[in-house]
Amino acid sequence: MNQGKERVAIICGGAVIGVIASLLVFLGNPGNMGFCIACFIRDTVGALGLDSAAAVQYIRPEIIGLILGSTIMALAFKEFSPRGGSAPITRFVLGFFAMVGALMFLGCPFRMVLRLAGGDLNAVFGLVGFVLGILAGVFFLNRGYSLSRTHKLSALEGSFMPVVAIVLLVLLVVAPDFIHFTEAGKGPGAMHAALVLSLGAGLVVGAIAQRTRMCMVGGIRDLVLFRENKLLLGFVAVFAAALVTNLVLTAATGHAFFKLGFAEQPIAHTDGLWNTLGTFLLGFACVLLGGCPLRQTVLSGEGNSDSAVTILGLAAGAAFCHNFGLASSGTGPTANGMVAVVIGIVVVLAIACANTFGGRAAAK
């Protein structure tokens, strides 16, 4: 595919994803949360009983669909390639703190774009922090940051996340007693589109993301490093399509799918400083990982065990945040969450230095 056709494919794919994301909110998902990889992993972790936050307990079919949609496309185009073994502990830790940053802001990069498209101006602070975090990561990339090389693995290793996705789907459908789920309190876990619609949306978005390689972190990173904007155009298209869809839905239904302002935004807080610092940590960690949570999820469906380890780190981070009061809420960040973000920035900075300047010292 030449560059022109590739750009058109990414823009069209982003537009389709933006429409799907807004329609999922119309169909029952939380406001400005048609898709949020961090939030959906958190909800799934809660559903499996790994945290006690009753408001966020639901196995999200969208995550299952993202993984399986990616797997199906990778197999169809002979791109299923089991690989891994690149600094798994480091990737787990980076994933953990990426989730700490995401739950301080209350959203992954995907949801940040959707919050902007819904008129949530708090996400502007998130975007600023996210870009600054990516720039911090690019600083180290330019100076030689690198994790160890990946290696070819067995098909069994590469099938880990697709198999997990299938097991989660079975559990969701069968709903045995040990799955934690509540409609009480009308929290985010109680707000969801129908299972079939959510799963179908996830499959479509996973397939598109696999073919287009969409990644917001990669888009901003490539723009800075190589003056290449094709990946970023995909998320511009997501924003534009979601914005238009939200405006149409607002006009058609009278419900505020688009509400411009800072106050009373769905599942968001107005603390600009900690929104910025949370997404700074998120962007910084994701650059060092090589991709945003969406990209990591899609890669795990392609057989990449490094991305699977990253997702496990995200999941552990989500459980830790809700078990120990680190996650923000609509009333704002917690003191524990603030401390965790600062610690996370220090840890991610140490990882960046160790794998940049430490590597050179070892080589010498």
Automatic annotation (TrEMBL):
Coiled-coil segments on the chain, per record: none
Phylogenetic placement of the source organism: Bacteria, Bacillati, Actinomycetota, Coriobacteriia, Coriobacteriales
Protein name (Swiss-Prot/TrEMBL): YedE family putative selenium transporter
Keyword vocabulary terms for this entry: Membrane, Transmembrane, Transmembrane helix
The species this protein was found in: Olsenella absiana
Domain of life: Bacteria
Any Pfam family: Sulf_transp
Residue stretches spanning the membrane: 7-27, 58-77, 89-112, 124-141, 153-175, 190-210, 231-252, 272-294, 306-325, 337-358
The keyword Membrane is annotated on this UniProt entry: yes
